[in-house]
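pipeline stage [seq->struct] | target=Bifunctional oligoribonuclease/PAP phosphatase NrnA | organism=Candidatus Methylacidiphilum infernorum | residues=326
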Amino acid sequence: MQPKEDLAAIKALFEENGSFVILSHCRPDGDAYGSAIGLALVLKGIGKKVEVYVEEGLQEHFQFLPGSSLLKPTPKEAPGPSTKIILVDCSNERRPGLYFESWHRKADLNFDHHIDNTRFASLNVVEPQASSTSEVIFKCIERLSLPCSKEAASNFYVGLLTDTNGFCFRPLLPETFELAAKLVRLGADPEELSIRSFRNYPLSRFFLLREVLNQTQFVENAQVAYYILTQDMYQRTGSSPGESENFLYYLQMVDSVAVAFMLEELSPMLTRLSLRSSKQFDVRTVASKFGGGGHKQAAGARLKLGLQEALKAVLSEIQALLNSTF
């Protein structure tokens, strides 16, 4: 719950300014898109000029989101000084990518739910107990008595739905389900949005998933599972990096797996790490060893190492985590 003075400051920011830019993080997921577009629709609904940016632009899979046409790739040029900057679902100022960094502009408002958020903006609304950034924003909108259209509610619902993986992942509090019910009452269609979010992928994603599952490795008595993504795999399957999201879920379906991770080749000496775990293992501690972060059961980092060096380093840290937990 935000202090009254913070809510007053956010209200003043919205009322006293006419132009806003909303940005979310690289490699966007449903919450990145849903929170950014949903907030943009709310601000446009009260007469504001709003631009929405993600460095990679809009993935084809999320074109179904109402208002998705608002979202554009982040431009190299910074907006004018009168335009206020809002970051959503970003734990630090590096998450929106290199173009935003080159703007050399401080964010005016930061909405997030990551526990390691650095509170980098002039105003920060960070609630680590929330299921998603969409939940954080919608609760703030409610407290400010701002109108939320059916289209905005649908975006917030997708953010909540995808960040909990269909209401399966923690944190899941009674308030999360109550919020979902409010969004449905505002017009969000739970069946349609669920189908669009989880059963709306191109055939190339299936081909990529087949390759991933074929090369998945199980180690540490099948307590740890992992796979590696290479640029060659994308080329062979005709897929794109955005289509590989949430593949770790399939590894976690194995009952013995406590920690699942993937390594993705970004360049010969840059590797992306993504980790998931069962509730007793805090994989954020592993990600932090490599300058990353996230949540207890979902975290990530970028390693300035080649794939094999990265694999060796990550496995060593996970082994230490297993030993310290038992």
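stage status: PASS
auto-comment: The mean pLDDT is 93. The chain is about 40% helix and 20% strand.
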